[in-house]
Design brief:
The complex is a heterodimer of chains A (120) and B (161).
Chain A (H helix, E strand, L loop, with lengths): L1 H28 L3 H27 L3 H30 L28
Helix pairs in contact in A: 1-2, 2-3
Chain B lengths: L1 H18 L4 H21 L13 H26 L7 E6 L5 H13 L3 E6 L3 E6 L2 H8 L2 H16 L1
Antiparallel strand pairs in B: 1-3, 2-3
Classes of the chains: A mainly alpha (120), B mainly alpha (161).
């Protein structure tokens, strides 16, 4: 039984780590500030959730589990606030988002040509 | 007064749970910090406003479960886009905010930001402006599943009060 829990826990920890790396790759590959926020969103949510749940399985039923649960709760409440604060600050600083050609915003959009540089 | 007592009790339980060391000195320090926090909250006039029991019901747990499912779905979607950056088609969109209570509006804004693929840029009384990573994320938000779920959360609270 302990072995099964250990294996599940390690699977969760490792997938969490993989998603953290994917988030980091996304940060580098996405074209502009706003799209990069989405990439960091992966690290903020699924990566954090998987790692904390994996750690909870390691700690078993104890005060430690409760603390980890609280960490997760606070993380899930505060990270969207921080992300929103960043996005809001960028909007107020008049950072123009790179937008796709379709839709009404597409007209005033020279930045689009520079977008898919990493396409190949 | 009812809220002051409930807040103090909540803080005491929280402190006992995460302290784990039960010595007289730490009890005194814990008690002092609880009193300090309650005093600050009273001064800030947030007691009973911010932790209004409107959203405290079993529906909140159901909502979190549902949100977790959405999280996993949108995470996988955005992860796929990381490796196919050609498919990234960002756009801005506005969706209506149908909720009454401020807590529900904030929950909506936060949930939108929390799911990768959409980020809340601006939240006003009736409109939420968001940045979406691609067409699919945008459509998901415009479909309004999340707004309806939060309406459902809100209704329960009114019935109970």
């Amino acid at each position: 039984m302990a072995l099964i829990i250990d294996v599940i826990s390690w699977i969760l920890l490792l997938t969490g780590g993989v998603f953290g790396v994917i988030g980091a790759i996304g940060m580098l590959r996405f074209p502009d500030f706003y799209t990069r926020l989405h990439a960091s969103g992966i690290t903020d949510t699924l990566c954090a959730v998987l790692i904390v749940v994996g750690l909870m399985l390691q700690s078993g039923l104890s005060l430690l589990t409760l603390k980890l649960l609280l960490i997760l709760l606070f993380l899930l409440f505060t990270t969207p606030t921080a992300t929103h604060a960043l996005a809001r600050a960028a909007v107020l600083d008049n950072i123009e988002p790179v937008l796709a050609g379709n839709g009404e915003q597409g007209s005033e959009n020279p930045a689009q040509t520079g977008e898919p540089s990493s396409k190949s | 007064m009812r809220y002051v007592i409930s807040l103090s009790l909540l803080l005491v339980v929280l402190w006992l749970a995460i302290s784990g060391v039960y010595k007289p000195l730490l009890f005194v320090l814990g008690g002092a910090s609880v009193i300090l926090v309650v005093w600050l909250s009273v001064r800030m006039d947030v007691v009973g406003v911010e932790h209004n029991p409107v959203l405290f019901s079993w529906r909140l747990v159901v909502y979190w479960g549902w949100l977790m499912g959405q999280l996993i779905k949108s995470n996988l979607h955005v992860s796929r886009l990381v490796f196919q950056t050609g498919k990234v088609k960002p756009r801005l969109l506005s969706v209506p905010v149908p909720h009454e209570a401020a807590v529900s509006k904030v929950t909506y804004g936060n949930s939108v930001t929390l799911t990768p693929g959409t980020v809340t840029l601006k939240l006003t009384d009736h409109v939420l402006e968001a940045h979406a990573l691609d067409e699919e994320s945008a459509r998901e938000l415009e479909a309004g599943h999340m707004a309806r779920k939060i309406c459902w959360l809100e209704r329960q609270g009114e019935k109970e009060n």
